[in-house]
Design goal:
mainly alpha; 5 helices
């Protein structure tokens, strides 16, 4: 009996060792395959990049003379246009300074011109306001004089009628005089206002025209500066193309090296592809050989989990 138990224990130990060995062997085979496949992919990428570089070099070498001629013309044209733009920038900067000065002087000049006109308009406004008040007062006095005379006449107060008539006559003269003064003040005010409004409108139009000229010059300067930058970029690009063409033309050995590199890597990729195929086949064999052991172990784990869950459920149900 003791001997049988010992044999079962040894058998279980062997089974566990076999399971771990199966998983380790499968993992090792997969790892070797994945590493080899990654190396093969890297070789293919290197070949692709080298072919693109070689194609670029061969294309430039095949059209070397045309590229040199074309890019030289582009560079010279861009430099000439850039120089013209730079000269225009200098002219515009001086023009803008002059326009800024002129605009500032114009605003000061207009302010000095409008100030006395505004003062005269204000005085005319005040005079007109006073004349309106005086006319309203004279009008009120005339009304009161009429009422006083009417009251004296209706009461047949002979002694009061004569003074009332005299007062009415004086009030009428004052009212007429105040009306004339009001009309004169009104005409003066309207004339001063027209003069000021016309001068103000001319001044603002002159300032607007001056400001428009300044803004037009500033906008043109922005565009010309953009042209300078664009033409400089064109010249630099053309020079870069010239430098690259000269470098490729002067180093045919690099083109030969690339060709040899591609051929060597193609051979290496073919050998590596065979190696990957062999490792893939080996990994499949290992997975097939250890399949039963791995599935059995996984099934055992599932069974253990089910048993544990069942025990917990029974405890919870009958506790």
């Amino acid at each position: 009996m003791r001997e049988t138990t010992e044999q079962n224990r040894q058998k279980n130990a062997i089974d566990v060792q076999e399971v771990f060995s199966a998983f380790k062997e499968t993992r090792t085979a997969n790892k070797r395959y994945n590493e080899a496949h990654a190396k093969l992919k890297a070789l293919h990428n290197e070949i692709k990049d080298a072919r693109e570089t070689l194609s670029h070099r061969e294309n430039i070498e095949a059209h070397y003379d045309t590229l040199i001629e074309t890019n030289t013309k582009q560079r010279e044209l861009a430099l000439k246009e850039m120089q013209r733009a730079i000269s225009r920038v200098s002219v515009l900067e001086l023009k803008i300074k002059e326009l800024e000065k002129r605009f500032s002087e114009l605003k000061d000049q207009n302010a000095r011109m409008l100030e006395p006109l505004q003062d005269k308009l204000a005085r005319a406004q005040n005079a007109y306001d006073r004349a309106k008040n005086e006319y309203r007062t004279a009008e009120k006095s005339l009304k009161q004089a009429k009422e006083t005379l009417a009251s004296a006449q209706s009461g047949e107060i002979q002694d009061a009628i004569a003074p009332a008539k005299e007062h009415l006559e004086n009030a009428a003269v004052s009212e007429k005089s105040a009306a004339s003064l009001q009309m004169a003040a009104k005409l003066e005010f309207e004339q001063r206002k027209r003069t000021y409004d016309e001068a103000f409108a001319r001044a603002k139009q002159d300032e607007k025209d001056s400001q428009s000229a300044l803004e037009a010059a500033q906008n043109e300067l922005k565009q010309v500066k953009k042209t300078v930058t664009a033409k400089n970029d064109e010249a630099e690009t053309a020079q870069k193309n010239l430098d690259e063409a000269d470098e490729i033309h002067a180093t045919p050995q690099e083109t030969s090296r690339l060709k040899a590199f591609i051929e060597d890597n193609i051979e290496a990729a073919r050998a590596q592809e065979k190696h990957v195929q062999a490792l893939e086949a080996d990994a499949k064999k290992v997975r097939s050989k250890t399949r039963a052991t791995r599935i059995g172990f996984i099934a055992l784990l599932v069974f253990v989990v089910i048993v544990i869950v069942l025990i917990i459920w029974l405890i919870a149900t009958f506790a």
